[in-house]
Amino acid sequence: MELQAVAREPDAFQRGLTAAEIEAICRRAFGATAERAVELGFGAYNSVYRLEVAGRSEPVVLRVAPEESAQFGSEFRLMRNEYASLPWLAVIAPLLPRVLAVDWSHEVVDRDWMIQTCLPGIPAPEHLGNYPRSGRTTFFRRLGAIARTVHDVRGTHFGRVDGPPYTSWSAVVIASLTQIADDLERAGLDAADVRKAATLAEEGRATLDEIRDPRLLTGDLWTVNCLLDAEAPEPSISGVLDFDRTEFGDPAADWTIRMAQAKQDEREAFWTSYGDLDRSPAATWRAGIYEARHLAAIRLERHRLANPAAVGDSHEAMQNVLAELRR
Fold first, then answer.
1. How high does pLDDT run on average in the chain?
2. Contacts for 141 with CB less than 8 Å, ≥ 6 apart
3. Is the Cβ–Cβ distance between 34 and 53 less than 8 Å?
4. Cα 301 to Cα 10, 304, 308, distances in angstroms
């Protein structure tokens, strides 16, 4: 089998598979051998390969989770959460890859893995810049419509789709901040400001619990997780990927909403299809708590990606958010 792997530092978080491991996975999934495996460089959590398998006319995508011993508590078994989310994501099924095989047994390799169909298209970060800025509003308008469709799905509990289930939104937010703080401290990083955010969330529990209707959150949907039609005259989303961080809660807490508000540019078209946000004082305060949670997760990710400068930058941003929350 021909294997093209991404070169990484020996201590990098992402760990590739050997040719023998990929062969074993293909035999388990298809009873066939892999002829070629190309590791894809995008993504910063799972290891991802495009496979050409004997007897199959179309390539498939293999996604392999990190070893469980390397996973943080706040990111534990994310692939299993994505798999549990698929019935809830049926509203956007035509845009999603189909799952062909999945294995949590750790019998073939000591990691969770999933094989999916290979969607046509080019990653949006690579192709969106080929269109004039004035034309990119089409992309963000479509992204807003996709987010709206997902956020309209009602869940049966608060928290991650695969659980544990919570009966209140405040309990999810407080537990999430606390778990990320625990992860940061186990990694040897300062998490005092994250714990302050958890304390403020506890003090504002009643405001968080004004959210009584658990809605489905995408968790991580933005340009990096979109594919574009290579031939379309204007940006056309042909697929969306990586829903491993889905949860039920307040749509305003979703990463997609955070990113849509990050700049005043062509992304403002997002709101023409998504709709208006609640701008009440209570919603504004909740948004501050959500930003603290995003910043805490970003700090953890930057540490995982061995970017100490960005880890340091997160402290100033967090202090600004905490100051606003205290006011």
1. 95
2. 269, 270, 272, 273
3. yes
4. 18, 5, 11
Question: Residue 74 is part of which domain span?
Answer: 2-117
Q: Examine the domain organization and report whether 101 and 126 are in the same domain.
A: no
Q: How far apart are CA 196 and CA 179, in angstroms?
A: 13
Q: Would you say residue 44 has pLDDT above 90?
A: no
* Average pLDDT of the segment spanning 208-226: 97
Least trusted range by pLDDT, from 8-12, 104-108, 233-237, 320-324:
8-12
Q: What angle do CA 209, 214, 217 make, to 5 degrees?
A: 115
What is the CATH number for 112?
A: 3.30.200.20
User: Which residue, of 117, 143, 167, is where some domain finishes?
Assistant: 117
Average pLDDT value for residue range 21-32: 97
Report the alpha-carbon distance of residue 16 to residue 47 in Å, rounded. Answer: 6
